[in-house]
Amino acid sequence: MSAPHVSLPDPTHLPNLPHLPPPDPLTSPLTGWTRAHWEAIADRLLDALTPYASPGLAQYRLPGPPSHSGPWSDGLEGFARSFLLAAFRIAGSGGQGVSGLIERYAAGLAAGTDPRGPDRWPPITDRSQPMVEAASLAIALHETRPWIWDRLDDRVRQRVADWLGGFVGAVVNDSNWRLFQVITEEFLASVGAPHSRSEIDAGLARLEDWYRGDGWYTDGDGRKFDYYNAWALHLYPVLWARIAGPRADPRLVAEHRRRLRSFLHDHQHFFGADGAPVHQGRSLTYRFATAAPLWAGVLADATPLPPGRTRRLASGALKHFAERGVPDAQGLLTLGWYGPFLPVTQRYSGPASPYWASKAFLGLLLPADHPVWTAPEVPGPVETADVRLALPAPGWLLHSTAADGIVRLVNHGSDRLPPPPATAEDSPHYARLAYSSATAPETPADRAPDNHIALLAPDGTPTPRGRIHPLGVEGTRAASWHRAVLPGSDEGHRIKTVSVVHGPWEVRVHRVDAPPGTPVREGGWAVADDTAPPAARTGPGWALARRADGLTSTVVGLHGWQDAGTAVAHAVGANACGHHSATPYLTLPVHPGGTHLLVTLVVLSADPETNGDPHVRRSGPRVRVAATGEVEIRFPDGTRERVPR
């Protein structure tokens, strides 16, 4: 159905996971994977960490560059995030056959909370990274209560509570971090330790401020939409309710469940037919953590998905990365997407940060005889029909195609910038016009043309997109505008863009203000491969880049690109999906001044019916521009769309 993202060996043979159970084609006809596969991978990940444990087993110091918090905090991160995985494995097995894990993490708790011990953890202080790890510890302690917490020595329990208690009264980042405080202090409440009910309530109330409807939260003030909506802002309320039990307000719990159900209706569309999540946003090194809310919906009885689809999507995501070398040959999760790739990381990313992927194993808390593990797999939405999905809250428009299994996200709303007047530089994972399950943006993005329209300075420097001003998402279209500011100038030039999608096609209607003589450039998708540079072809008004397996990125000037130059930009080591990458683009050498209309066809496809350059140029969408400035788009099947001036 879908094109692989990099050249692969036989997918039935995974050299980094040599001891997986045989596939089950009856229960899992689409992935072959069962609960036993999840358990085997969990065990492989946990076993691989042991060479990096500190003497007291309280820290895991993994190889790689430290985060901005430093190696001491990074060692705690290794313990806390792997403890989360161990907790799901322990609780999911009822404590049977996992005595080694129980002993290992109990010993680490004792050593890490000994204030005079050599393995002690850094304390929780205002806005410090240990706040993040405390929440993972609290969740793991709650889920393993009968096997670890209840069996700890009283002195160790007191030390653990004292360490976690550093959260009480501390200053927390005003983002998903507020939920780390909620989780940690609710656990303290559950064991009779000092906590602040007002801080718990305030964190939950702050979540309400960020809700934008239809299951979507922004991660703090501004337009900060990404997978944190999935693996944090929906996940933690479900886990908080499990810890709080009767202390939780039932009306609030019901509202969280309603929102999660609404979100999962959308989230199921973010996975390609090959299991790949759409590549957008920060902390992408958590990889298959995108599966966490799928399981959370089942745990909370808050999912609209049939059990077989939940497992198909979750197993598909895990298997997608496994087939592409995750974990690595040592059994470790590296800082990257497939292989190591630091541009998908942030300053806070340390060697053990990828182990937030542990959240994907939440499904192990469900019993082995639960329908989510026993029902036959059900195909994901992208596997059965072409889909268009308007998401007004984040300002996104999804369009996926069953012929090649690719999901594309058109971005007219998420820039991850704080509210005005604050400004910040573009991030390639937020500022692009589109993202997909088959591609990644070029990083760094200073001069990269992929999925970006820009004015060009005399030295060729492109203008950033900057703050995105949404104009609406409905049906087949999404729109926004941004202000393009040339280097050395305080004056911005408005670029308004309307995207209209149909099948694999996206037609972008731009109204570009610019000084006379300014060059304008627009790029299509960046395609990448590990084995060889993608092939490049250009012609009058069009350019394409094609991978050996057929995945093709094409850009065509439909209107206003008279005398445009066409080219393909090649890069090495700039793309998370492969070592060699290429992006087709158009350049209008001279803007006429004032407002100039540009209409561009942008295509990403692995379907031979729609990815060939003769087909795209001769039989693809056409446009007609009226004297009023209205643009009529005519798609090959006869569908017509009108974009007013």
Can you walk me through this structure?
The structure is a single chain. By secondary structure, the chain is an alpha+beta fold. It is built from 14 helices and 22 strands. The chain has helices at residues 35-49, 71-92, 99-112, 130-143, 154-164, 177-190, 197-209, 228-233, 235-244, 250-267, 292-299, 307-322, 371-374, 613-619, and strands spanning 211-213, 216-217, 387-391, 396-401, 406-411, 434-436, 453-455, 469-474, 477-485, 492-502, 505-514, 520-523, 527-529, 535-539, 542-546, 552-559, 565-572, 580-588, 594-605, 622-625, 631-634, 640-643. Strands 8-9-10-11-19-16-15-14 form an eight-stranded antiparallel β-sheet, covered by helices on one side. Strands 7, 12, 13, 17 and 18 form a five-stranded antiparallel β-sheet that branches. A four-stranded antiparallel β-sheet has the order 3-4-5-6, with no helix packed on it. A hairpin with a 5-residue loop joins strand 20 and strand 21 (631-634). Helix 4 packs across helix 6 (177-190). The longest helix has 22 residues, at 71-92.
Summarize the structure.
By secondary structure, the chain is α+β, with helices and mostly antiparallel strands. The chain is built from 14 helices and 22 strands.
